[in-house]
Amino acid sequence: MLDIRGPDGRAPFDRYLAQWNLVPDGQPVGTRSSWLLAVRRAGEPAMLKIAHEDEERRGGSLMVWWGGEGAARVLEHDGAALLLERAVGDASLTAMVRSGRDDETSRILCAAVAPLHARRDRPPPGVLLGLPEWFSALEPSAARFGGVLRESAAAASALLADPRDIGVLHGDLHHGNVLDFGHRGWLAIDPKGLIGERGFDFANIFCNPDFVSATEPGRLARQAGVIAAAAGLERERLLRWVLAYAGLSAAWTLGDGDDATLALAVARLAAAELAATAETSNVAS
Prior knowledge:
With 285 residues, the chain is α+β, with helices and mostly antiparallel strands. The chain folds into two domains: 13-85, Phosphorylase Kinase, domain 1 (2-Layer Sandwich), CATH 3.30.200; 93-284, Aminoglycoside phosphotransferase (APH), C-terminal lobe (Aminoglycoside 3'-phosphotransferase, Chain: A, domain 2, Alpha-Beta Complex), CATH 3.90.1200. The chain has helices spanning 13-19, 54-66, 93-98, 102-117, 131-134, 138-145, 148-161, 211-214, 219-231, 235-255, 261-284, and strands spanning 23-24, 29-30, 34-41, 44-51, 74-78, 81-85, 129-130, 166-169, 178-180, 186-188, 194-197. The strands form three sheets. Strands 1, 2, 3, 4, 5 and 6 form a six-stranded antiparallel β-sheet that branches. Strand 5 (74-78) and strand 6 (81-85) form a beta hairpin. Helix 4 packs parallel to helix 9. The longest helix is centred in the last third of the chain and has 24 residues, at 261-284. The mean pLDDT is 94.
């Protein structure tokens, strides 16, 4: 039997392989927040995921609540462990962007998240985290590092003080978290389990799928129009969410002592586009 564990002794795959009659179908993968193992059950592909951080456990609860509507189906769940249907399609949103299909990809992401945002006739999991708490690292980071982070913090503060269209959020929507599930279409994985304004969920698209794409001249301005139209959002408010989110991403990265070049670059691009939008509006009026 397979028994791969992290330094803390967790990720007991053997238990779930036996409990759910699973056969390993690949090598285990460890991330900062979970362990993953491709498996098969009765010949069908699946993914065994064992969370070891709170945000992954919240996300798992949300995946169960979604019930396969817009997200991978949860086939089994037990505490921190999920057995998920596995993506079997060959298409990749990241590859589509790199082949010049950026606008199409953004529309796919907007369509994919729509069923996740849809109202259900059952209450969402009580463990979901509100956006004010999710943004808690931004203000201290802005005070410490200054620069565009101050603009990000100001944008976040204003948005969070006047929330609109509140509902369940994926929390980490990007090109690597919406996969090709064959006949089931494009489905989401790996939510963070948040609740707040719907517009927040689209901001991370602008920071992905890579530095070259995210910082291509004119890309942010163009995608703001594409995504606002596809998702039914106000373009300027969407840009404010991009500024706020990119600053938050930079705050997290700087807090970990890592390179925040990408997030800071996107924050500056969003701030510049907001300034240009305001100037255009002033001239028009």
